[in-house]
Every structure is written in structure tokens, then in C-alpha cells.
Amino acid sequence: MAILRAQEATSSTSICAYDVFLSFRGKDVRRNFLDHLYEALVQAGFGTFRDNNEIERGESLMPELDKAIKESRISIIVFSKNYATSPWCLDELVMILKCRSTSRHEVLPVFYDVSPSEIRNQKGRTGKTFDMYEKHNEAEIDPVEKMKLVEKVRGWKKALKEVADLAGMELKNQADA
Question: Given this model, what pLDDT does residue 61 score?
Fold first, then answer.
């Protein structure tokens, strides 16, 4: 399993604050699948970062997330139906992949009630979300801001494609099946 490989590969060479960083869209999975995953990881002895447990109130969110990603051996990204509707999640995804490209950080995608092809190709709900982002960009008047937004969306799309091409797990919510 990727978690064990990441733990073995880095245990002797670096000290990490966490074994696992969990990336997820809270409203989709926080109170069901993610709670079970988090508890299983903790009970198995993996130090696990989950934003609602680890970030103190009043702290700036993005620098704390960036720090936690860099101080983790592996990121488990739980893609769900509304993952792409969160610019926070997409920014976090870009940070994770940057860390992967510059260190031995492992990435394990989990596709929860969404297919890898929807994420990879930005189709379905994910595609509609990106249509909305692009319409928002078109409405921007300031050319400098417009270019920043276009580049940001381009980076998000590239990150989604890259991570959807990794070997991962596809899970269906049994309650919906």
C-alpha cells in the first residue's frame, strides 16, 4: 500500500509531523466516509492531518495547510461530487502536487462516488463547475486579474488531470447504490 511504502521510504531519512494528509470536500464526505477513514488511519497508528482537528481557530488557513502538506509523507485526496466546487480544495490539490514533484511525497487519489474520468476530463458536475469558473473569469474587467484567474483555472485543470491519471481507488457510496 502507498501509505506503507511512503512510511518506509521516509522513516529513516526525514522527520515528518504527519504520515497522512487528508484532502477532501467537507460537505460531501466529512461526516461519513472521511470520519471512518480518519479513525481507521489513527487506529492503525498513522499520524493523520485533517483540517478540522489540526488547525487552531484564528490561524491563517492556507499557510497552515501548506505546512501540513509539506510535513506529511503521503496525501490521500478524496475526490467527491463537489470537490471541484471548492477553490480551497483545488488550491490544496495544486500544493500537494507541487510537493509531490519536489520531494518523495506520495499521492493516493480516492474517487468517492465520482469516476476518475469525470475528474480527468472535467466532465459532468466537474465540467459544469469549470464552465462557471471560466464565465466568472470572462466577467473580470481588470486584465491583470483576469490573467491571474485564467492561469489559476488552467493550473487546477492540469492538477485534476495529473492526479486522475495516478493509480487510485474508486468507491461508491453504498447508501446511494
Answer: 77
Rounded to whole angstroms, the Cα distance separating 36 from 130 reads 30
Query: Are the beta carbons of 164 and 116 closer than 8 angstroms?
Result: yes
Q: What is the pLDDT of residue 28?
A: 82
Alpha helices in 12-142 (DSSP H): 26-29, 33-43, 51-54, 61-70, 87-102, 116-121, 124-139
**pLDDT tens, 88-134?**
899 999 999 999 999 889 999 999 999 999 999 999 999 999 999 99
Task: Read off the pLDDT of residues 63-77 as tens digits, 9 standing for 90 and up.
Answer: 888 999 999 999 999
How far is it, in rounded angstroms, from Cα 120 to Cα 29? 20
Look up residue 88 and give its amino acid: W
Output 169 or 2, whichever has higher pLDDT: 169
User: d(Cα 147, Cα 141) in Å, to the nearest integer?
Assistant: 10
Between the alpha carbon of residue 41 and those of residues 35, 123, 173, 176, the distances in Å are: 10, 31, 19, 24
Residue 4 has pLDDT above 80, yes or no: no
On whether the CB atoms of residues 173 and 161 are closer than 8 A, the answer is no
Which residues are the active-site residues? 92
pLDDT-derived band at 59 (thresholds 50, 70, 90) equals low
And the C-alpha cell for 145? 486579474
